[in-house]
Write a structure and sequence with these properties.
Its EC number is 1.2.1.38. Pathway: Amino-acid biosynthesis; L-arginine biosynthesis; N(2)-acetyl-L-ornithine from L-glutamate: step 3/4. Catalyzes the NADPH-dependent reduction of N-acetyl-5-glutamyl phosphate to yield N-acetyl-L-glutamate 5-semialdehyde. The protein has 342 residues and is α/β, with parallel strands linked by helices. It folds into two domains: 124 residues, NAD(P)-binding Rossmann-like Domain (Rossmann fold); 162 residues, Dihydrodipicolinate Reductase, domain 2. Helices cover 31% and strands 20% of the residues. The strands form two sheets. It has a seven-stranded mixed β-sheet with strand order 8-9-7-10-13-12-11. It has a six-stranded parallel β-sheet with strand order 2-1-3-4-6-5, with helices on both faces. It is globular and about 60 Å long.
C-alpha cells in the first residue's frame, strides 16, 4: 500500500482527493493537514466521507509527512515550494496541485504570482503532469506539477493541431468554469446571490493560467504560439467548457481521424463522433475530457469543444492519475467513476 499524506485537505480540491483516494485499492491515507481545523474529524466537515474515512485534520508537521511515500499539496500558491525540498530529500514523492512548479521560468512565476520562487534549484526537475504529453517523464518523477483546470481543457483541445503544425495565426480559447474553480474561501463573487442568474468574463487583461497554457503549447509546437484566453464564470458548481478556435487552412486533413488517432490510447480522453457537442454534465465527477471537432461551413476556422470536471480531470483526478504513474500502478486505479447524471 502507498502511504499518502495530503497538505491542505479542507478545500474543494482536497475533499475531491479524499473522495477518490478512500476508494483507491492501493492507497492508505496517513495524514490530512489543516492549520485552521486541526483536531476536527474530516467526516465532520465533509459528511460524504462518513463511514469511509476515520481521520482527523492535524497540524502540518514535516516529520510526519516524511513517513509517507507520497504527499499531495492541495494548498494555496506559494506553500508547497516552502516544504517540498525537505520532503524530496527524505525520499518522499510529491504531487503539487497548486501552481508552484508549473512554470519553468522563475521570472515568469514571479510576474504572474507576485512572489519570488523559493526553490529555483529544484524547479527544473519538476515534471508537468499532463499524462497525455508527459507520461514517460511522470513515471520517473519524484516531483510532479499538476496542471491547472483551464490549461488541461485548453491544451488537450489544441494539442493534435499544434503537434502537427496545422495552425496558422493565433489561437483563441473562450472558456467557462463553474464557481468551485474559485475555491472554498469566502469571495463576494462566489455567493449565491452574486453568481446565480449571472454570467461574466473575468481576467481578460491576463489570467494566471495564460502563461501555463502558452508554455505547454509552445513545447508541443517547438515555437511560441499566440493565444487569446478569456475565462468566464458560469452559475454552476463544477465543470469547464472550453470553446477553442484555430485557423487551419489545409482542408485535406481529416481532423476527426487526427484526433481519434492522437487519443486512441488515452483512456481519459473521449473524442466524440463528428458533429457532437460535449456537455459539462457528461463529465461531472469523472476524470474524463470529452472533445468534439467542428469546421463550420467548411471554412478555415476550426472549432474544438473540450469539456472536463474542473475538480477531477482539472485537479484531483489528474493528480491521482499522476500518482498511479509514479508508482507503476494501473492508470485507471481509483478513477473508474462514471459521470453523474442528472
Amino acid at each position: 500500500m502507498i502511504k499518502v499524506g495530503i497538505v491542505g485537505g479542507t478545500g474543494y480540491t482536497g475533499v475531491e482527493l479524499l473522495r477518490l483516494l478512500v476508494q483507491h485499492p492501493d492507497v492508505q491515507l496517513e495524514v490530512i493537514t489543516s492549520r485552521s481545523e486541526a483536531g476536527l474529524p474530516v467526516a465532520d466537515m465533509y459528511p460524504n466521507l462518513r463511514g469511509h474515512l476515520d481521520l482527523a485534520f492535524s497540524q502540518p508537521d514535516v516529520n510526519t509527512l516524511k513517513q509517507c511515500d507520497l504527499v499531495f499539496f492541495a494548498t494555496p500558491n506559494g506553500i508547497a515550494m516552502q516544504q517540498v525540498p525537505e520532503l524530496l530529500e527524505a525520499g518522499v514523492k510529491v504531487v503539487d496541485l497548486a501552481a508552484d512548479f508549473r512554470l519553468s521560468d522563475p521570472a515568469v512565476w514571479e510576474k504572474w504570482y507576485g512572489m519570488p520562487h523559493a526553490c529555483e534549484n529544484i524547479l527544473a526537475e519538476a515534471v508537468y503532469g499532463l499524462p497525455e504529453i508527459n507520461r514517460a517523464k511522470v513515471r520517473e518523477a519524484r516531483l510532479v506539477a499538476n496542471p491547472g483546470c483551464y490549461p488541461t481543457a485548453v491544451q488537450l483541445g489544441f494539442l493534435p493541431l499544434v503537434e502537427q503544425g496545422l495552425i496558422r495565426g493565433d489561437l483563441v480559447a473562450d472558456c467557462k468554469s463553474g464557481v468551485s474553480g474559485a475555491g472554498r474561501q469566502t469571495h463576494l463573487g462566489s455567493l449565491l446571490c452574486e453568481a446565480s442568474e449571472n454570467f461574466k468574463a473575468y481576467g481578460v487583461p491576463g489570467h494566471r493560467h495564460l502563461p501555463e497554457i502558452r508554455q505547454g503549447l509552445a513545447r508541443a509546437a517547438g515555437h511560441e504560439i499566440g493565444l487569446t484566453f478569456v475565462p468566464h464564470l458560469t452559475p454552476m458548481i463544477r465543470g469547464i467548457h472550453a470553446t477553442l478556435y484555430a485557423q487551419v487552412p489545409d482542408r485535406s486533413v481529416d481532423l476527426q481521424a487526427l484526433y481519434e488517432q492522437r487519443y486512441a490510447n488515452e483512456v481519459f480522453v473521449d473524442v466524440m463522433p463528428a458533429g457532437s457537442h460535449p456537455e459539462t454534465r457528461s463529465v461531472k465527477g469523472s476524470n474524463r475530457c470529452r472533445i468534439a471537432i467542428h469546421r463550420p461551413q467548411d471554412g478555415d476556422t476550426v472549432v474544438i469543444l473540450s469539456a472536463i470536471d474542473n475538480l477531477v480531470k482539472g485537479a484531483a483526478g489528474q493528480a491521482v492519475h499522476n500518482m498511479n504513474l509514479m508508482f507503476g500502478l494501473d492508470e485507471q486505479a481509483g478513477l473508474g467513476h462514471v459521470a453523474l447524471l442528472p
